[in-house]
Amino acid sequence: MKLIIGLGNPGKEYEHTRHNVGFDTIDLFADSLGTSIEREGFKGLYEKTKYFDEVVYLLKPQTFMNLSGESVRAIMDYFKIDVEDIIVIHDDMDFEPGNIKLKTSGSSAGHNGIKSIISNVGTQDFKRIRIGIGKPTFNSVDYVLGRPQGEEFLKTKEAEENAVKALKVALNESFNKAMTEFN
């Protein structure tokens, strides 16, 4: 059993912002499996599906980014999912738009959603797919809550598609194989 978490903020005003690439990517993954993430529970929206023979839960916390860990902890506890079986998809300002990077653990690097998950699951040792959004040239809050335009938009969409491909390799083969292929 696996738990895939896409991070973002709920509400129309945050749709398709840089900070919501986790939501957009997990929706793209769900679409590729012929499902959508619409069930309410665990302080989020979730869905149970299968990928090959693996039961996979998809989660979009609805707690706002800074409290994402509450939703993650709730679903992990209910379904008895181990921390080594979660993968978190989120935005990262340390990479340019279009780039993705997979890693198996690490600090929050200032990302409040990851900080909340670390606090709630009690470890920083969980898998992540980080999607580059680039460094802001102005206020970082305004930047992450803004929507990519033009070439940045195209690069972001390409990164989301590559993140879905990496996720499928991670689930079908191994996370290490996905890291080798997509980092």
Structure notes:
This protein has one domain (2-182): Peptidyl-tRNA hydrolase (Rossmann fold, 3-Layer(aba) Sandwich), CATH 3.40.50. It has 6 helices and 7 strands; from the N terminus they run βαβββαββαβααα. It has helices at residues 21-32, 68-79, 112-121, 140-144, 150-172, 175-182, and strands spanning 2-6, 39-41, 44-51, 54-61, 86-92, 100-103, 127-132. It is 38% helix and 22% strand. It has 183 residues and is an alpha/beta fold. Helix 1 crosses helix 5, helix 2 packs parallel to helix 3 and helix 5 packs antiparallel against helix 6 (175-182). Strands 2-3-4-1-5-7-6 form a 7-stranded mixed sheet, with helices on both faces. The longest helix is centred in the C-terminal third of the chain and has 23 residues, at 150-172.
Question: What's the gist of this structure?
Answer:
The protein is of the alpha/beta class. The protein is 38% helix and 22% strand. A seven-stranded mixed β-sheet has the order 2-3-4-1-5-7-6, with helices on both faces.
What is this structure's SSE topology?
Elements: E1 2-6, H1 21-32, E2 39-41, E3 44-51, E4 54-61, H2 68-79, E5 86-92, E6 100-103, H3 112-121, E7 127-132, H4 140-144, H5 150-172, H6 175-182
Parallel strand pairs: 1-4, 1-5, 5-7
Antiparallel strand pairs: 2-3, 3-4, 6-7
Helix pairs in contact: 1-5, 2-3, 5-6
Keywords:
alpha/beta; globular; 6 helices; Rossmann fold; 183 residues; 38% helix; seven-stranded mixed β-sheet
* CATH superfamily descriptor: Peptidyl-tRNA hydrolase
What value does the Rg take, in angstroms?
15 Å
Tell me the β content: 15-25%
- The helix/strand series, from N terminus to C terminus, equals EHEEEHEEHEHHH
Biggest β-sheet description: 7 strands, mixed
